[in-house]
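# nightly structure sweep
# worker-07 picked up a monomer target from the shared queue
# config: single-sequence mode, recycle default, output format = structure tokens
# input follows
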Amino acid sequence: MNKVILIGRLTKDPELSYAPGSGNAVCRFTMAVTRPFKKDETDFIGCVAFGKTAENIAQYLTKGRQLAINGNIRTGSYDAKDGTRRYTTNVNVETFEFIGSSNNNSSDNFNNGNDEFTEIPYDPDAPF
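# output follows
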């Protein structure tokens, strides 16, 4: 079973692009995830989302925002411009949830100040 659950903060604003040919939305971002037993150690984990999930993340999340994601680990490789083989490891986001509030205490807190998970039901016509 390949299942990942992460809670962390965005290290910078998500980058949204569209795949050539298909036009499918692709959103890449990095999460800072604190290790549970070593509060002074943090892992920086690359994440990628597709489709409507990608568009929602890019539209509603910014640097410092805390979120929870569910997904799976994907490894891959590609040939760089200099001819070397590069290897990648990312979390492929299946679902996400807004939690906490943004680091800068802005008023875009989607869960009314509650630090518990906020379930967002799937609605293909919803703006988020």
